[in-house]
Fold this sequence. Notes:
The structure holds two protein chains of two kinds. By secondary structure, chain A is α/β, with parallel strands linked by helices. Chain A has 13 helices and 14 strands. Chain A has helices at about 50-55, 80-85, 105-110, 120-130, 145-160, 175-195, 205-210, 230-235, 240-245, 250-260, 260-265, 285-295, 325-335; strands at about 5-15, 20-35, 40-45, 65-70, 70-75, 90-95, 165-170, 195-200, 215-220, 220-230, 270-280, 300-310, 310-320, 340-345. Chain A has a six-stranded mixed β-sheet. A four-stranded antiparallel β-sheet of chain A has the order 2-1-4-5. In chain A, strands 12-13-11-14 form a four-stranded antiparallel β-sheet, sandwiched between helices. The longest helix of chain A has 18 residues, at about 175-195. Chain A starts with a strand and ends in a 6-residue tail after the last strand. Chain B is an all-alpha fold. The relative contact order of chain B is 0.15. The interface of A and B includes residues 57, 59, 101, 114 and 141 of A. The complex binds adenosine-5'-diphosphate and magnesium ion.
Amino acid sequence: MAKEAVITLSDVDVQFREKNRSVHAVDHVDLTVERGDIYGVVGYSGAGKSTLVRTINLLQRPTSGAVNVLGEDMLALSPKQLRTERKRIGMIFQHFNLMNSLTIAENVAFPLKGLKSKAEIDKKVTEMLKLVGLEDRATAFPTELSGGQKQRVGIARALASDPEILISDEATSALDPKTTSSILDLLKELNETLGLTIVLITHEMEAVKQICNKVAVMDAGRIIERGSLLDIFAKPQEQLTKDFIDTTLQLDAAIESVRKQPAVAHLKGADQLVRLTYLGASTDQPLVATLYKDFNVTANILFGDIQILQGTPFGNLIVVLSGTQADIDRTFKYLADNDVQVQHITTEAE
Amino acid sequence: MSFFEHYLPNVVPIWNGDGGFVQAIWQTLYMTVVTMIVSAILGLILGVLLVLWDDHGLLQNRVAYFILDKIVNIFRAIPFIILLAVMYPVTHAIVGTGIGATAALVPLIAGTAPFFARQVQNALVTVDPGVIEAAEAMGISPMGIVFRVYLREGLGELVRVTVLTVISVVGLTAMAGAVGGGGLGNMAIAMGYQRFQNDVVWVATILILVMVFIFQFVGDIITRKLQH
Lengths: 350, 228
Ligand SMILES: Nc1ncnc2c1ncn2[C@@H]1O[C@H](COP(=O)(O)OP(=O)(O)O)[C@@H](O)[C@H]1O
Ligand SMILES: [Mg+2]
């Protein structure tokens, strides 16, 4: 079943020209987001993520390229039409961007003022505050709220005009991990209950892992790799993508301590220290048991991390494989055939 | 009464009546209030335009910004005492005379409106650009953003710079007064200083100070009301 594309960026390019330098912030990017997606765009600071998503609602006009959102050719719209269209695209920000002079309820009512009757606005505000769990803070001012609560207000405000798309630009980057997680859960819930399509920009792969179904990795203005969350985690091609995935595991620290263990310090014969990465179905048979039973290779697990991505287990094991060279070679072939990624780890610190 | 007659021998005879202190107080208030009202409207419009036409503004316009910016700078660079002389023909053309409190309004406004425009600009650029961006993303029009975001979020700063401007206008009226505008400045110079009547100078000064303190006090109350 082909899903409806709600955002299509075609060959979008953004260059900032200043007096003595020119920044190619977005370099000929194509991006398609389908209805119901939670599309993660991940990359380091300065990669061009914000600039890219700001072309969706034309807060940033592209230097060249086409922007189609919800069936509208955005670049062909008059200023007035563009404003109408923007009401269908909500946006939340890293620093919340609430009006400090207004109460929480007034902030949420802000986008509706003048468009609906007072009674309708009041009803909508109550409904939105309830949705984000802040109905008891309606008369408070933003300065009285915690970061997480402020972002909830930001979400309520963004959703007040019933948008079909929500753009989240580092919306959790100023929050602690626990609050981040609760905001991400809220976004996921809104995605499921309202059918909201979300574009989630972040430099934290952890956030992408928690709620996104698709992900694009950005570097120097380009999307260097993209795909479904599971495909990207299962078979990352680019080093940067691998690095981002590794940030969600505490692998570096684990490898450090693994290297200090006697089993590693004194590897014998054909013994190998490897990292095994597998996703879900790769392992319908108990992996370690199979290696021993069918290949005569023992796998001594020194570190293990198994997480659930969209209901699918994603495992990372650091093991010492022991056996004869021939058996180990056959084992590698078996692992490759079963979509288990093998990465050799040197026993000495680099 | 004898206390005042004893210590303020020159003030008492000219307290009431034509050219007296009471009239001077009213003239100063009149010049200050009218100048402030007209300059506030002009300065607010010009200040908002400076913010909108700025390179980071909503209606970025390099040429328009450049011109307005230079005009504001030029008017601010001219010392007020000189502006009084420079504006004389204009004043005469508008008011029909160059003398009196109403005639003084022309140079007062010419000196104050650009000053206030710059103050307004400085006040409004303190509004968080992120909030402006959020309003843009919500599909609010530039006019809507001016009235609902800039003037709202910048209100505290606007009150502060307004008080600052009022106080500066009181000072300017004293100067305008000295060259025929009437008011407390005229009183201090023409009746006091030039006639060696020190008590007149002192009373005029104290009255000006009292006015400044009252404006400041009112401003503080409003500012406090705005904070939560
Ligand atoms: N308005 C602008 N003017 C000039 N350069 C900009 C502007 N906005 C962003 N840039 C530059 O474009 C590049 C990408 O920035 P950005 O999109 O903010 O990256 P990210 O959101 O991934 O951190 C950076 O080098 C940044 O300095
Ligand atoms: Mg960014």
